[in-house]
């Protein structure tokens, strides 16, 4: 009975339970989505509206009067390399096997210092042979001298006996002939001794050629040979033969070689002041001076080579370093006419229609387009004859959309 009652209770409908969602629930979610989209569109429109008044980020540069700092004003910039006027790859005069190398890279050597030695076996043997030949020649001279003294004494005695008619005349003549023959033989022996002595001197040079010495004082920049290798000034033996022992550079002869375009070589003059900056030390400005302009051009590159002397000697300056040079204007004295106009970065001048224009930044951070009359190029700058005055500020690399009256801010300051 109890089980039946429980089953009947389960079959009853509970009218107090909440009603199932009706067809209006999806519409509520749709209204929520539409509302969010409307808020997003309004935010985008507001951002665009407010963004129109945001200042344009730009870079600026001052307008400088030409001649205001004539000692450091650059009329031309170029790049080149540090080179040594006195540099040599030292080699032996003969072909031989290296016995000892006495240099290392970075080592300083003095003039005449031994850098390496070759195996002197052949040279020593040749010298010993020449020394023996000289000794033999000298011994022959001494023997002939003794025979000649005897022959001269015999001839003198026979001459006295012939006067007394104690010996025949023919005997005396034979003695005189023997004496003269010994004199001739002695002269030849002495000549042979001199030749042997000269041959020994040549052999001494051959021995000395096995010693490689520094031709001048300098610093070793390369070590090219090792003990046991064959060296030859003529590279005999193909790729297995070295042609040098090492390379030395006279650091006092360092200078700069610059190639200047033909179109700008007229701005460079001998004795012109130069400011050099090594690529390795960009904050170090080295005073320099133009030595000479090489009177020939490279037709392939359309450049002219210029030699520049370094006025500072420093261990940091080494050959083959890259260097940037600025050819400076010579100081203007009272008798010379001062240059006209001002100078601005060439990147600040743009074309607007048919005019060259620069954008001048005003006191309220608005720009004004100013038409210019330009002059010559001055390295990375440009001469402006009219349209700008010293002390003004111009926009560098102005955007194509920049126009007269726009608000600007220095790059990095607009966000703040």
Automatic annotation (TrEMBL):
Chief localization: other
UniProt similarity note: Belongs to the membrane fusion protein (MFP) (TC 8.A.1) family.
Name of a matching Pfam family: Beta-barrel_RND_2
Protein name per its UniProtKB record: Acriflavin resistance protein
Parts forming coiled coils: 134-199
Keywords from the named record: Coiled coil, Membrane, Transmembrane, Transmembrane helix, Transport
Molecular function per GO: efflux transmembrane transporter activity
Gene3D superfamilies (alphabetical): 2.40.30.170, 2.40.420.20, 2.40.50.100, Helix hairpin bin (1.10.287.470)
NCBIfam families cross-referenced by the UniProt entry: RND_mfp
Organism: Stenotrophomonas daejeonensis
GO cellular component: efflux pump complex
Residue ranges of domain Multidrug resistance protein MdtA-like C-terminal permuted SH3 in the record: 343-397
InterPro entries assigned to the protein according to its UniProt record, in alphabetical order: Beta-barrel_RND_2 (IPR058792), MdtA-like_BSH (IPR058625), MdtA-like_C (IPR058627), RND_pump_MFP (IPR006143)
Subcellular location, record wording: Cell envelope
Stretches that traverse the bilayer: 29-50
Ranges for domain CusB-like beta-barrel: 256-328
Domain Multidrug resistance protein MdtA-like barrel-sandwich hybrid span(s) in chain numbering: 86-232
